[in-house]
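Possible regression after last week's pipeline update?

I re-ran a chain I had predicted before the update to compare outputs. Posting the input and the new output here so someone can diff against the archived version. Not blocking, just want to make sure nothing changed silently.
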Amino acid sequence: MNTNKPAVPNTTVTRNVHDLDKTTDNLYESLVVIAKRANQISNNVKEELHGKLAEFASSNDNLEEIFENREQIEISKHYERMPKPVLVAMDEFLNGKVYHRNPAKEQK
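New output (post-update):
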């Protein structure tokens, strides 16, 4: 996932509801697609973050030896500044970057 996209806003944006149901003809189906994509993005970012922070994990369970690691703090701040997964998923959906299909509609 490219996290340096300037096109995705970091704050919520008011959307026109009619823009969401253009591709699926159903608002709720569109929201399900966006929610599932947001979960995928969230899981990918979470795995990536845990992988990077695992490098800093210590094998000592001694509470007295807890110290701040500057690199770890910078990595955490970077991930906190990233746009939320729902905002990224919404942007991808509205720009046609999400592949989706409904097997129930295909059977008819």
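Follow-up from reviewer: compared with the archived run. The helical segments are 17-20, 27-54, 70-81, 85-94, 103-107. Marking as no regression found.
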